[in-house]
Design goal:
The protein is α+β, with helices and mostly antiparallel strands. 61% of the residues lie in helices and 17% in strands. The model has no long low-confidence stretch (mean pLDDT 84). It binds zinc ion. The site of zinc ion (ZN) has 8 residues, from helix 3.
Length: 160
């Protein structure tokens, strides 16, 4: 691992010098091309006489931080997007529940109305029936028709 000093030319004959820490010359060039884009010409490459044996912690941290940031931002975004989606789903679900509750209320009210009407009709019908009840004058038994009452009298009170 050494520091490579690369002098290169870009479009418009502008020349630059870059210092890149890399394992070898090829990797240093590859990194430079990846970082700056199209290079018109490499003028010179020289490396420091001494191999690099250590990198200060601060620089390592800076490099790691740079990568961390990229990763963290990516993750946070997906997590937030997930949360947003989940919130939307929850909202829709609760809206549906409210709607269903409203529907239930409406149905209950309708059922109540139907029950009230039915019992009202029932009592009206009962009133009608009561008016035409025939009662046996011997034992007070009730009959729906005059014929029924007469049959009862001839059968039950035959000997009376
Ligand atoms: Zn009777």
């Amino acid at each position: 691992m050494r520091v490579f000093k690369i002098n290169y030319e870009m479009q418009g004959n502008k020349s630059f010098t870059a210092g890149i820490l890399a394992e070898n010359k090829d990797k240093a060039l590859k990194f430079l091309k990846k970082t700056v884009g199209t290079i018109k010409r490499i003028n010179s490459i020289s490396s420091s006489d001494t191999d690099v044996h250590g990198i200060d912690d601060e620089i390592v941290k800076r490099i790691l931080k740079k990568y961390d940031k990229v990763e963290v931002v990516k993750e946070e975004k997906t997590v937030n997007e997930d949360k947003e989606l989940q919130n939307k789903i929850k909202l829709l679900e609760s809206e549906n529940i409210e709607k269903l509750k409203e529907k239930d209320k409406h149905i209950n009210k309708l059922n109540n109305d139907i029950n009230n009407l039915t019992s009202e009709l029932e009592s009206l019908r009962m009133d009608g029936v009561k008016e035409t009840v025939f009662i046996c004058n011997i034992c007070d038994a009730e009959f729906k028709s005059k014929v029924g009452m007469k049959q009862h009298r001839t059968r039950v009170h035959k000997n009376d």
